[in-house]
Design brief:
Blueprint lengths: L2 H8 L3 H18 L3 H8 L21 H11 L12 H4 L44 H10 L8 H11 L1 H8 L18 H9 L2 H22 L2 E3 L3 H10 L11 H11 L18 E2 L15 H10 L17 H4 L12 E2 L21 H10 L17 H11 L6 E3 L3
Antiparallel strand pairs: 1-4, 2-3
Helix pairs in contact: 1-2, 4-10, 6-10, 7-10, 12-16, 15-16
Organism: Massilia eburnea
Cofactor: heme
Pfam families: CCP_MauG
Length: 414
Amino acid sequence: MNLTRKLRFVAPGIGATLVVGIAAATTFARQDWSKEELAILSTLRLSQLPAAEADPSNRVEAMPQAISLGKQLFFDTRLSANGKVSCASCHDPKQQFQDGRQVGQGVGTGIRRTMPVAGAVRSPFLFWDGRKDSLWSQAIGPLEDAAEHGGNRLAYARAMQRHYRIEYEAVFGALPDMSQLASDASPLGTPSQQAAWQAMDKDKQEQVSRVLANIGKAIAAYEKNVHFGQSRLDRYIEGILANDGKAEQLLTASEKNGLRIFIGAGRCVTCHNGPLLTDQHFHNTGIAPHGPMPQALGRRTGVAKLLADEFNCLGRFSDAAPEQCGELRFLATEGATLDGAYKTPSLRNVASRAPYMHAGQLATLDEVIAHYRAAAAAKIGKSELEKLALGAQDVKDLAAFLGTLSGPIVSEQE
């Protein structure tokens, strides 16, 4: 609709044209959307994201001393086998707390894409397969993973003693006596490290494992303060809901059509919904599998690992009471939908987070949209996708819209 021509028809006088033009501008953007569409759009605003709930399994997450310690640990390369890898190596603040690689690269090469830190505290399950159920438990995983930090449990406890004793004990209390223990020991390490671990008595094993859990809790306390900032889409939606005529200028015609497809014919909002544009669930989208079995099974393997994890919400290192672990207690453990299913990632800042999917299988957003449009059969499990009747211009508009989701990454500790 040509706004200028319509105003001249209604009020041909110059003065009347100006008055009517101002009045129409305040409602034009809103009139472009139906009530049903506006209701959906209103749920996508970042301003509708409630404050993050406290994690009952991490009693120190709000302590300033824990946050400060966690920040130091996040950037410390000494927490790795080769002294070169830190959490920030893959979760680089200069790259939106991710790394831009197809798969993670630590002391070795991983099999999955690095997931962003921002907003992760909102997720009940972490990693692409959901094998962790808290931010602190997630932080522990890479430390002992052979391809990531590659370290061992006792070496990390010794690092706390050597470099962070005052800071650690101010938050968690006294470190255990390790004077009679080997230099390296871990239930997950090399054969010699595992043998050294088995030679330790059970009390010492638990004390050292608790230090590892506390390292994770401190890192999580820092990571909880990393957020997504407002995007152009947020400002557009806030503007049209407030009848602000200037909002119309925030999105191009192509981006607006892409938004309409996103919440309509493209069915993207089915899974990418809410202020973080994710349903926090796991879905099989038919993407080509990557990595060895059984990891390629995705959520099915993740569930098994989560239930066996000594650092889960119900484990002895959790600060939560059993009744506070509802997500874990009522976890779906069976069903064909687990096979080949992976976490729905947030789409915030997605345009600058290539490559895409759980192992970086697709290089561009155009390729991602083409994949969803074609809805090819899955090689593992059954894909949930259905073919989309989108034209070539619709595809371009949808890709253009995804660029409006970019905003700053806000760290309260910077």
